[in-house]
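Example for tutorial group B:
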């Protein structure tokens, strides 16, 4: 295990009002982290600050290298909440969108090797059939899977995903989470996933991060069950049902009690 994303006393403000204060954590290789917390709590901002898209104060390291000196961007796949590609109105094919994920691709020519990588990523996300289609003609769910292929195309060691499942229907969502679990288990891809899909995410992840202006909690699912800080924020019932370690009464096999039924 080695450090992939590390924050030490990181703070950030868009204006004068602080959005993040005194944030510290260390995500290790192979972790699958579910990032949860209230709307406006700073989850998206935290990921942007960690990737240098917004400039925070404090110490940030990516793969053990200070952010300012980090240049191995091919190791990181990022699927933003609002992709600039989704908003732009130019006619670009799905295949070209995936190609954009190859950070060392320059110019108009595409090598056979690059095409192979593009098709492999599209195969993984079940979007190969849309390769020649105009990206904007695809459904939102299909676009999301193409954007995931773009995040995967350089075979990154860490995948950072900001609410990727909101636009997906039930079947696509299941496929999406299955794929992420596979990447994590088979290839030990480190995953950080912001999600409101708390009912789903607990099944797959190994760690929770609860963000509300700071990192209120970061640890394993078992530690999550026993965290006083989480109980104060969420209430014990939600705390004990969110992670799927519990039965239908929310009974914690590690010693907790359901707040609703008392069992
Ligand atoms: P979350 O992802 O947890 O919903 P965000 O990181 O999106 O939280 O937002 C944290 C806070 O920062 C919110 O109060 C939001 O209104 C504010 N905010 C987000 N983006 C900007 C921006 N570009 N400019 C100014 N304020 C912003």
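The residue assignment follows.
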């Amino acid at each position: 295990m080695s450090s992939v994303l590390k924050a030490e006393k990181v703070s950030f403000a868009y204006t004068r009002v602080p959005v993040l204060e005194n944030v510290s954590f260390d995500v290790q290789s192979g972790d699958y982290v579910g990032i949860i917390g209230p709307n406006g709590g700073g989850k998206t901002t935290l990921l942007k600050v960690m990737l240098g898209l917004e400039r925070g104060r404090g110490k940030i390291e990516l793969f053990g290298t200070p952010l300012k000196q980090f240049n191995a961007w091919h190791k990181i796949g990022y699927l933003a909440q609002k992709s600039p590609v989704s908003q732009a109105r130019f006619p670009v094919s799905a295949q070209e969108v995936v190609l954009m994920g190859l950070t060392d691709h320059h110019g108009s020519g595409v090598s056979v090797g690059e095409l192979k990588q593009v098709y492999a990523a599209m195969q993984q996300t079940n979007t190969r059939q849309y390769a020649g289609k105009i990206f904007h003609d695809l459904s939102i769910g299909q676009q999301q899977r193409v954007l995931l292929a773009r995040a995967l195309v350089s075979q990154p060691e860490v995948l950072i995903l900001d609410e990727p499942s909101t636009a997906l229907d039930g079947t696509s969502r299941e496929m999406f989470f299955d794929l992420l679990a596979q990447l994590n288990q088979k290839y030990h891809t480190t995953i950080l996933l912001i999600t409101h899909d708390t009912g789903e995410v607990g099944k797959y992840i190994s760690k929770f991060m609860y963000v509300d202006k700071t990192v209120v909690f970061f640890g394993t699912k078992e530690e999550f069950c026993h965290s006083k800080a989480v109980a104060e924020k969420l209430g014990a019932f939600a705390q004990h049902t969110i992670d799927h370690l519990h039965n239908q009464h929310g009974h914690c096999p590690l010693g907790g009690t359901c707040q609703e039924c008392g069992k």
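The chain has two domains: 1-63+157-263, 84-155. Compare this with the pattern of hydrophobic and polar residues in the output above.
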